[in-house]
Amino acid sequence: MLGPVILAASRSDRMRRLISAAPVTKQVVDRFIPGETVDEVLPIVRELTGNGLELTMDVVGEDITTPEQAAAARDAYLELIDRLKPLELGTRAEMSVKLSMFGQALPGGHELALANVRPVVEAAAGIGTTVTLDAEDHTTLDSMFAIHEELRKDVPQTGCVIQAYLFRTEEDARRLAAAGSRVRLVKGAYKEPAEVAHQQKHEIDKAYVRILRTLMEGEGYPMIGSHDPRLISIAQELARTAGRKLDEYEFQMLYGIRGDEHLRLAAEGHRMRVYTAYGTDWYGYFMRRLAEKPANLRFFARSMISRG
Predict the structure, then answer these.
(1) Strand 93-97 relative to strand 131-133: parallel, antiparallel, unpaired?
(2) Number of other CB atoms surrounding residue 306 within 10 Å
(3) Are 123 and 93 in contact (CB under 8 A)?
(4) Taking Cα atoms as reference points, which of 271, 245, 274, 200 lies closest to residue 48?
(5) Burial, 221: exposed, middle or buried (Cβ in 10 Å; 0-12, 13-18, 19+)?
(6) Of the listed 58, 134, 172, 205, which one is catalytic?
(7) pLDDT block averages, 10 residues each, the chain of length 308
């Protein structure tokens, strides 16, 4: 399978230099990442919300190695919030954050990440929107969930992400499916060992459905992170069975993937949120998009050949 190979490449400095230097790369990356600055991405915000869509915005960046870089990541989100304020979009434009960007992997990283992310969460609440804590590899999750629980004491609408391929997630979902919670369910996009995660697609899909049923039958707000037509149909049926109204759950998909489906779901009355990343440190994010779906890799390869 190519997925693990691509995920390994996402950590390779040599591959980063090779792919970043290819003349065609930026043109292809633009499909998934619509800009490097707030000024470049705000027109996309206006376009998507004008089409009845919602957004969750991610300032891309990984491999933070100093407290100063973590503080810069915090400040980048605070700038985004400041620029969103006059648009008065409320929860139509929320934010997603990776705690690794806020210093989670540094010495004293749990406390550092909490200290850096708290002002972002509070500032987002101040303009009427929310923040969702993204899930990263399994070694970081206990810290992420503890920070999530701490933040919710003052900002209860703070969301989190769970990953269907991890064995632990069914138990996590039962704990999180409580009143007031906001939980995004995704399949998972990190290379995880067989000791902690399902390795076969059909097993991941079955786990996804089991976990989604738990969320739909719970009292929280499920966010369905998937582009899979079959899982989207199953999600709609689970919502109907659970008696949920259209505004009591939402779909989430990545910017640049299945754009027609975004619009179709929104036209049917569903809340449809587009995960929109921007920033200069796009490499790791981009490589995971290739690893998640073979069609993305084929698109990149065809573009390299046709434009190279």
Answers:
(1) parallel
(2) 8
(3) no
(4) 274
(5) buried
(6) 134
(7) 51 58 62 88 97 96 88 97 98 97 97 98 98 97 98 98 98 97 94 95 97 98 97 98 98 93 97 94 68 58 49
Q: Shortest CA distance to 33 belongs to which of 261, 263, 286, 252?
A: 286
Active site residue 82: no
How far apart are alpha carbons 118 and 120 in whole angstroms?
Answer: 5
What helix, strand, coil percent values describe the chain, rounded to 5? 55, 15, 30
CA atoms within a 13 Å half-sphere pointing along the CA-CB vector of 197: 20
Phi, psi of 105 (to 5 degrees): -90, 0
* Contact between 279 and 59 (Cβ < 8 Å): yes
**Contacts for 200 with CB less than 8 Å, ≥ 6 apart:** none
Calpha distance 140→45 (Å, rounded): 30
CA-to-CA dists, residue 60 to 55, 114, 178, angstroms = 15, 18, 30
**Length of the chain counted residue by residue:** 308
Residue 137 annotated as catalytic: no
CB within 8 Å of 34: residues ≥ 6 apart: 40, 41, 44, 255, 256, 276, 278
Which position among 92, 182, 184, 271 bears the catalytic label? 184
Are the beta carbons of 152 and 114 closer than 8 angstroms? no
The pLDDT, as a whole number, for residue 81 is 98
Instruction: List the beta bridge partners of residue 171.
Output: none
C-alpha span between 29 and 37 (Å, rounded):
14
In this structure, which amino acid lies at residue 171? E
Please answer whether residues 250 and 224 qualify as being in contact, where contact means their C-beta atoms are separated by less than 8 angstroms.
Answer: yes
Q: How far is CA 16 from the centre of its chain?
A: 22
- 144, amino acid identity: M
